[in-house]
């Protein structure tokens, strides 16, 4: 990272950390995205903001791929839980939520390291 770009990238890392926190807050409040259109839209917009900000920080690409996979898996599990109560596996859904939180936390930790070293 060049000296000229360091303040900008530090600011983006700070914004991304805040966006990740906002995104996780919305995901935590989501139970059945297809019966709760407004909360799902908030998750979707928050995730888009995370992806946009991450674009300026290529060193987070691997973590973003992991987060994207977790996001898709969790949204699918929530959809299945909402559409077929009989086959709903609460334990598996909880494990997906925990894995998702871990992905978000890992990405936030990297952001914090980026802006705290400046």
Reconstruct the topology from this structure.
Layout: H1 6-28, H2 37-54, H3 61-83, H4 90-116
Describe the protein.
The protein has about 120 residues and is mostly helical. The chain has one domain. It is built from four helices and no strands. Helix 1 packs antiparallel against helix 2, helix 1 runs antiparallel to helix 4 and helix 3 packs antiparallel against helix 4. The longest helix has 27 residues. The protein is elongated, with a radius of gyration of 16 Å. It starts with 5 loop residues before the first helix and ends with a helix. The relative contact order is 0.17.
Structure characteristics:
elongated, 4 helices, 118 residues
Quick structural summary:
The protein has helices at residues 6-28, 37-54, 61-83, 90-116. The chain has 118 residues and is mostly helical.
**Sequence stretches where pLDDT stays below 50 over 5 or more residues:** none
Helix and strand content put the structural class at mainly alpha
Mean pLDDT, rounded to whole units? 87
Query: Compute the gyration radius: what is it?
Result: 16 Å
- Give the N-terminus to C-terminus distance in angstroms: 11 Å
Say how many strands there are: 0
Biggest sheet architecture? none
DSSP helical segment count? 4
Q: What shape does the CA trace take?
A: elongated
- Element string (H = helix, E = strand): HHHH
- Fraction in helix: over 70%
């Amino acid at each position: 990272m060049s000296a000229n770009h360091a303040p900008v990238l530090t600011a983006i890392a700070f914004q991304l950390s805040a966006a990740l926190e906002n995104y996780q807050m919305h995901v935590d409040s989501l139970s059945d995205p297809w019966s709760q259109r407004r909360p799902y839209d908030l998750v979707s917009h928050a995730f888009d903001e995370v992806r946009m900000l991450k674009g300026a920080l290529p060193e987070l690409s691997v973590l973003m791929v992991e987060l994207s996979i977790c996001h898709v898996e969790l949204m699918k599990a929530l959809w299945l839980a909402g559409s077929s109560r009989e086959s709903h596996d609460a334990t598996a859904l909880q494990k997906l939520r925990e894995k998702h939180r871990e992905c978000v936390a890992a990405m936030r930790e990297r952001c914090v390291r980026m802006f705290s070293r400046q």
